Structure formats: structure tokens, C-alpha cells
From TrEMBL, chains A, B:
One of its GO terms (molecular function) is DNA-binding transcription factor activity. Residues 14-150 form the HTH marR-type domain. This is Transcriptional regulator, MarR family. Pfam families: MarR. InterPro entries: HTH_MarR-typ, MarR/SlyA-like, WH-like_DNA-bd_sf, WH_DNA-bd_sf. GO terms for biological process: response to stress.
DNA sequence: TCCACTTAGTTGTAGCATCAACCATTCGAT
DNA sequence: ATCGAATGGTTGATGCTACAACTAAGTGGA
């Protein structure tokens, strides 16, 4: 529109890919949230927070680390952890190393919650994303998302190489 | 976790692909919103709404149609259109065909807004998504997103085949 | 024709995210 | 040793989204 020079606009193939991609990006979170909200009274971000803690050593991470692995800003995480703490799934305690830092630890109740919630969530992920794809698709998804993620978050991409 | 049978959990390659994908899904909207908010005082969804109208015949669509192409629910769209109407970018008028229906039409000011905003937005899309990808990546992205979108929104996938 | 059902859209409310402002601690340079 | 800057984190206000409830208009059968 307005400017049609190739450096600015997208070509047809790029345009088609973008439209599909952004549609998925807009719709997928709603699907995940709906299932988790309905079955576990958690947002997808709540679940991710609990899940990341459940995989950490001693079920504990500093807020900054947790924000990194959950793709969140610190204010957002702080609010979410406050709510999850009120519900008894997480405990906060000041770090002894660095007195500015806060450790978030998954409680036993939080651990149970993740275990009870995971199968339903993974089922949704399978239904809407993984099962429609063959092995080649999954490989391509991994590669393409890697390139985009490297742009969206350069440092993080280098740290968590997997 | 808890249940490890292959039918329930994901294998390593699937897991890696999912983690990257969901990271992108969580981060991308923020990047788009930030640029548009900063440069045009629009959310990405605001922009999409205006852009879809700008491509429609007579710059007009019924609310239901507009909701479809913007991947939104009707309540969400209704609120957004109300705001955009207050700002003079959209006009609403009752449909003559079906007296339940409402037509949303892009005003001249709305048209100008889209034109002024598009280059910056497309620049962001290029920077973060398109430019890091080669032609093969774009093709793969298109194919894979097509399969996922077909699950997320079966009817729509059939209608807008492109 | 009447009544039940569906479709189109709006509105109010509650909850989550973003942003800016803020405090406390630590680091780095002089 | 001290002061300025950077880091780690929390909090409050504002704004958008989701959900439920609702009105109005069209549809389809008995």
C-alpha cells in the first residue's frame, strides 16, 4: 500500500506466510488459555511459570531467571507470582547471595498442580499443534522459529541453545 | 511428567520445536504492539482492523466478517471499533439487507492512518520475521502454519483458501 | 400465525498486561 | 571510601480482553 517498492512491502509468498503466521499467533494463546482456565483455573502463563519452576534445581529460580525462561517482563512475573503465592503454589524468599534478589520456589501443592494439569495441557498442544504435523514439519518449525527467536531475543537465544 | 507414555508426552524433537514456537508466540505480539503503540498510538489489533477494512470493497465490512478476518471475537471487535469510531477512523451504520447487522466503514482519516502507519509496521514485520528467513523458510512457514491454522479454525481455513 | 431457536451485535464487569515510578542493593570508577 | 549508575524487584494506575448477559431481528417448523 502507498509504497510498493520491494524493499518495503512483502512479496506474495511472504505476504501469504505472514498472514497465516500472525493468525496462528493471535489464536493459539486463546486456545491454550481457555483449556487451562477451564480445567485448572490457570492462565497459560501461570502454567508456564509453575512448569518452569518444576524443572529447576530445588524447584527454585530467581525472579530474573524465571522471567527469562517464561518470556516475561519482571513486572508481569511479579504480579503473577504474587497471585500464585496467595494460592499456595509458590513461595518467595529473599536470596542470601544477593540481597536484592528474590527466589521463587514451587511448593508441594504447586508441584501437585503441575502434575495434575500437565496431561490436559499437553493434550491440547498435541491436538492443535503437534499432531497435525509430520516429522518434517516439526523439524522445519524448529528451524524457522529458531531464526525468528534469535531476532526477538538475541541474548537468550545464545544462552539456551538446545 | 507423571505420565511418560509416548501418546501423552512429546518426544525430544517435538518438545524443542514447541518450546521455541511458544516463545515466539508469546513475544511477537509485544514487539508489534510496542512499535505501533509508539509510532501510531494503535494496538496491533487496531491496525489489523483498519488494514482489513482498507482492503475491502468500498472499505466496508459487516462486523461478523471483520471479526473473521481479524481473528477476533465479536465482543472484542465491538469494543475496538467503538474506540476507533471515537477517534474518527471508522464509521458504523446499520445494514439495509439485514437489520440486525452493522457495517463498519473506514473513513478518509482511517485510510490516511493506515497509509501512514503501514510502512513502519511492515518494517517491523520484516526485521523480526521475514528478513531472517530465506525463501525455503518462508515456504515452510506457510505450509506448517496452514496445517495448524486448519486445526485452530477449520471453517475459516476452508473459506479463505489462498 | 405463533413460538422456539439462531444469528448479529452491544454492553458491563472482572481480570490480566503494560508502563512508569519507585526503593534497595550492588558495582565501578575515581 | 564514596558517589553515580546499573541491577533486582515491587507496586499502582491505565487500558485491553474475555466472559456473561442482554436486546433485537431473522428463521423454521407445527
Amino acid at each position: 500500500m502507498v509504497l510498493m517498492s520491494d524493499d518495503v512491502w512483502l512479496n506474495d509468498e511472504q505476504q501469504r506466510a505472514w498472514v497465516r503466521f500472525i493468525s496462528v499467533v493471535e489464536r493459539l494463546p486463546g486456545v491454550l488459555d481457555t483449556q487451562l482456565q477451564h480445567d485448572a483455573d490457570l492462565t497459560h502463563f501461570d502454567y508456564l511459570t509453575l512448569a518452569m519452576l518444576s524443572e529447576a534445581p530445588d524447584r527454585t529460580l530467581r525472579m530474573t531467571e524465571l522471567a527469562l525462561v517464561t518470556n516475561a517482563t519482571l513486572p508481569r512475573l511479579s504480579h503473577v507470582v504474587s497471585r500464585l503465592e496467595k494460592r499456595g503454589f509458590i513461595e518467595r524468599s529473599p536470596s542470601t547471595d544477593d540481597r536484592r534478589a528474590t527466589n521463587a520456589r514451587l511448593t508441594d501443592a504447586g508441584w501437585e498442580k503441575v502434575g495434575a494439569t500437565a496431561p490436559g495441557h499437553v493434550g491440547t498442544v498435541r491436538d492443535y499443534v503437534i499432531d497435525p504435523l509430520d516429522a518434517q514439519d516439526v523439524e522445519d518449525l524448529h528451524r524457522v522459529m529458531g531464526k525468528i527467536l534469535a531476532k526477538l531475543d538475541p541474548e537468550h537465544g545464545l544462552r539456551v541453545q538446545r
